Automatic annotation (TrEMBL):
Pfam families listed in its UniProt record: B12-binding_2, MerR_1
InterPro entries: Cbl-bd_cap, Cobalamin-bd_sf, DNA-bd_dom_put_sf, MerR-type_HTH_dom, MerR_fam, Meth_synthase_dom
Record keywords, A-Z: DNA-binding, Repressor, Transcription, Transcription regulation
Name of the featured protein: MerR family transcriptional regulator
SUPFAM superfamilies attached to this UniProt entry: Cobalamin (vitamin B12)-binding domain, Putative DNA-binding domain
UniProt entry tagged with the keyword Repressor: yes
RNA-binding keyword on record: no
Amino acid sequence: MKRFSISDIESLTGIKAHTIRVWEQRYNFFTPKRSETNIRYYSDDDLCTFLNIATLNDNGYKISKISKMSSEEIISLVKELQSNHHDSHIQIQMLSNAMVKLNETEFEEIINTSINDIGLEKSMQEVIFPFMRKVGVMWQIGSINPAHEHFATHKIEQKIIEATYKIPFKTKPSSKKYVLFLPPNEQHELGLLFAQYLLRKHEQQCLYLGQNLPYQTLSETVEYYQPDFVFTVLTSSSSEDKPDFVLERIKKAIGNVPLFITGGQAVGLQSTEDGFTYIIKDILSFINIISGK
């Protein structure tokens, strides 16, 4: 059993520590455990309960009403909310809860239901990418560890790969050639995998080179393959290389081949007004480009 401090609970659920203390005193919600040195802590079960309470509270249920519910009633209401597949806020909250609990069955169910109901593209745009941005914030403030982030990311990547290889492999006469890669020290493939899915769906030619590709290898590949476009994603904020420096290295490697670039670290890049570099701000704009709209 993991022990969570009140600050851990605050970070993971969004409920302020002061509010937790008030709820404990006013509604007798929890009786926190005490360590040998009399430090307050909470259990895994307590965390699950807090997550469920936060979900109900975020969706309009007053804490005075929640306090009168049994654990079974709270869980039942949360499951009822989960069935509202068209409310992206609820789905994002549910994914966060499942990730924090490392609950594979629950996480898979939420992802599968969203994809079945509204399709992969809309799920990515309205649920998964906003969820991943939330994961990034939780990572930065230290409320989750690498296992949580890896668990969520790999599950989503598996869904994208599965959907990609269900698409018949064919290209149309007007198709363009794309090279997809991530630069050195960039490990986050989710955005790149989704770009591959979109390109394959729209019958474009796609050479997928994956993560952490050396610039020299990129240069040699572009010279040999002669692509019409290069596509990359800048996500990592931990790289020692600044985004503008990475962009300059990429442009030097690919010459005058047009570059599509997206990701959190692509925002605010300085060296993009050269007629060859295009910042992709959202899914829809990239779909419009590759579909010729």
